[in-house]
Design a protein that fits this description.
Blueprint lengths: L1 H13 L5 E5 L4 E4 L3 E8 L6 E2 L2 E2 L7 E7 L3 E8 L5 E9 L10 E10 L4 E4 L9 E5 L4 E8 L2 E7 L2 E6 L3 E3 L10 E8 L3 E8 L5 E6 L2 E7 L8 E7 L7 E5 L2 E7 L8 E5 L16 H18 L4 E3 L9 H10 L4 E8 L13 E5 L5 H15 L3 E6 L11 E9 L3 H7 L4 H19 L1
Parallel strand pairs: 2-8, 23-24, 23-25, 25-28, 26-27
Antiparallel strand pairs: 1-3, 3-6, 4-5, 4-7, 7-8, 9-12, 9-15, 10-11, 12-13, 13-14, 16-17, 17-22, 18-19, 19-20, 21-22, 26-28
Bound molecules: zinc ion.
Length: about 450
């Protein structure tokens, strides 16, 4: 008995004086350009927490989330405990919003060329969204006739313009060789792929669009084609993956021959190493939880005889570019990126909970749908549906890629779900069932 009492006293002494922990904001002095800030963390059972006089509501496990508005300039938050002592002070400075706008400036037609590889040709002059229409290699001849934001307008044909970043082109004098010419085309086939080759006299701007099972390819500034545009349509088979590349005047479109019963699956545990990802109410780091989910999913898929590879299987940093190259090099056909969600600092963590699945290419949408359905069924999380978004790891057309946000790390209700027994098993079960159903319906 005495020993128990001593132990209790000892444990009590070990409790920190504050008996609460703020997981976010991580710094007590912050400068932001958002109109709000949230606090998430946990409060010890016997303690209570007030922020600027407002009592913080906690879940059974002590986790909490609360959001506050920010006024431009300095905002001070006092954290007080049961004894009404001020225990912490946070100073959040909101930057005064700046308005920037830029109008289109028309230019006389000018000749220039790309000065690097993988220059993104876009349908609008913005560095975001679903506006990528092609990727141009270095030394692609272009005609430009306008400038807006940090983009120059590329003349494609009478009816169509594209946009590239203005720092990705340099002026060039081409004299009488302004346009290119179409030369020939052919198909190469081997055990692993079928390749369509379209030859031109030089690198030219092009766009590729998949609609249903038809791949529309347009190459622009071609003198010997009507409206200076070469057009081709290729019929694709499930899962509709392809790769396209312009090099030395040749546009090649490669279609993989895929074993659709057991396609190679790449599992991508988000973040890692120096990049923790989001931080949860209970100070969990997203990178660790993503890795646990990835390992559970690998186990589940392997038990069903799938070929599975992981972009990382330890706590190490892997760049987005390396994740994509890995998946392409290994000829992965299905790519599952695992993440856990958070919200921008101005949003309210309490109203954001549940699972959501992202896709970029239309042909990845059925996989996103199927995984989202089975995942929410398995986890019991709120179904936030599927969304289209331009994330680097799911943009490639070489594989069917989705990004899954299994739950919100900063939402106290979701914290209870992901801290529950068998959470990772349920994630693995839901996602693998979603993949299987997708493959069956192809
Ligand atoms: Zn993430």
């Amino acid at each position: 008995m005495k020993r128990v009492l001593l132990l209790i006293i000892f444990c009590f002494c070990l409790l920190p004086a504050d008996a609460y922990e703020v997981a976010f904001p991580q710094k007590k002095d912050l400068t932001l350009d958002s109109n709000g800030i949230f606090f998430v963390g946990k409060v010890d059972k016997h303690e209570s927490l007030w922020i600027n006089g407002e009592k913080i509501q906690t879940k059974k496990n002590g986790s909490f989330a609360e959001s506050f508005k920010l006024t431009p300039g300095g905002n001070t938050f006092y954290l007080t405990n049961k004894k009404k002592d001020i225990v912490d002070k946070y100073t959040i400075t909101r930057l005064t919003p700046t308005v920037s706008s830029s109008n289109l400036v028309e230019l006389p037609m000018q000749e220039c060329k790309t000065n690097m590889d993988d220059v993104i040709l876009r349908s609008t002059p913005e560095n975001f969204g679903m506006n990528r229409i092609g990727y141009l290699p270095q030394n692609t001849d272009l005609k430009i006739n306008g400038i807006k934001n940090d983009f120059v307008r590329v003349y494609l044909n009478k009816n169509l313009a594209g946009w590239v970043a203005s720092d990705s082109v340099i002026p060039e004098q081409r004299g009488n060789k302004i346009l290119g010419e179409y030369k020939s085309e052919g198909i190469n086939s081997d055990n692993i792929s079928e390749t369509y080759k379209f030859k031109f006299t030089k690198n030219l701007p092009y766009s590729i669009k998949l609609e249903n099972n038809l791949l529309y390819t347009d190459v622009y500034n071609v003198a010997n084609c009507s409206n200076e545009t070469f057009h081709s349509e290729i019929t694709l088979k499930p899962p509709y993956c392809y790769s396209a590349k312009m090099k030395d005047g040749e546009l090649s479109i490669k279609l993989p021959k895929v074993d659709m019963k057991f396609p190679k699956i790449i599992i991508d545990a988000g973040h890692g190493g120096k990049e923790p990802g989001a931080v949860g109410c209970m100070s969990d780091l997203e990178k660790d939880l993503n890795l646990k989910a990835a390992k559970a999913l690998r186990k589940e898929l392997k038990s069903k005889d799938y070929k599975v590879l992981m972009t990382r299987n330890s706590d190490k940093f892997v760049s987005l570019k390396d994740r994509v190259s890995f998946a392409k090099d290994k000829k992965g056909i299905i790519f599952i990126s695992l993440h856990m969600n958070s919200v921008p600092e101005y949003a309210n963590p309490n109203t954001h909970k549940g699972s959501e699945t992202y896709y970029y290419n239309e042909f990845s949408k059925p996989l996103a749908k199927s995984v989202q359905l089975e995942l929410t069924k398995s986890l019991g999380t709120r179904d936030n549906g599927i969304k289209q978004a331009s994330f680097a790891v799911i943009r490639p057309t070489e594989y069917v890629g989705i990004l899954v946000e299994t739950a919100f790390l900063i939402n106290p209700e979701d914290v209870e779900i992901y801290k529950s027994k068998d959470y990772y098993k349920k994630v693995a079960h839901g996602i693998s069932k979603g993949i299987e159903n997708y493959l069956k319906q192809l």
